[in-house]
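Hi R.,

Here's the chain you asked about this morning:
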Amino acid sequence: MFAGLAAIAGTLLAFTMVNNRFNNILKDLGLEERESRSYIFSNFEGGVLSSPAIRKLAAGKRADAVRELGSYIKQYVASPEFKEKYQQAREERKPSTPGGDLDQLVKEQIKEMEMELPEGEKYLKQLPAGAPQRKMVEEELKKVRERLAILKDPKHPRYQAEALEMADIDEDQLKNYQEQLAWWNEHLPANPQLLIKKRLQEFLNLTADINFNAQLVKSGNKMKFADPKLEARSWDWKRCFRCGEETITAARVYTQQWLKELN
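And here is the predicted structure, written out as tokens:
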């Protein structure tokens, strides 16, 4: 799936307008302010290609429309509104921990360890210097302190492993959860800038080989590609083809420049 400039190229993308120039574009494309913000977000966050709009404009005007919408979309995805909405959506799609509410389990474990640790230290002080079990108790207390420090620091590299072990999650559950978590971090990175770059690159990859002179043939009430390989291409690719060369070319130029700015 893709979004970003793919959306500019052939979808209903816009958001709250701040001047008449962009209000005019919205009107030309038949867009409402509220729905336009939703289209932008869904294209970047979920890679959902929305309904075409730029094709409503006359040939010769589409490239300018792409550039204007592109500039405004760039402003929106850098706004606090977009970032806040994205982080909220990201957290909602975070994989559930198989052991239940892991944060609550960690808090309970920390509380229990903080209560037990003083008792262990008290017991250690009561042991004679040469007592055989003294070394064992010292090592155990050291492990407790280390684990406690890890569980109190969610950013610690060993935090997740310690928390999952504490929740008594079996290997299959742990593997499945880790795979889901890896997918979540890859497809919905914490930094929305990474997502934006990903979507823009996906658009460039998708539209790199479109032949706008490809032959179409009538099939019933529809037009299909004469070349079976082109007919087998994805729905998104065909949507970009239908946007036309003027729109896609302008969108690709804008996307390439935007990516340079992000890198």
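One quick note: The longest strand covers residues 216-219.

Cheers,
M.
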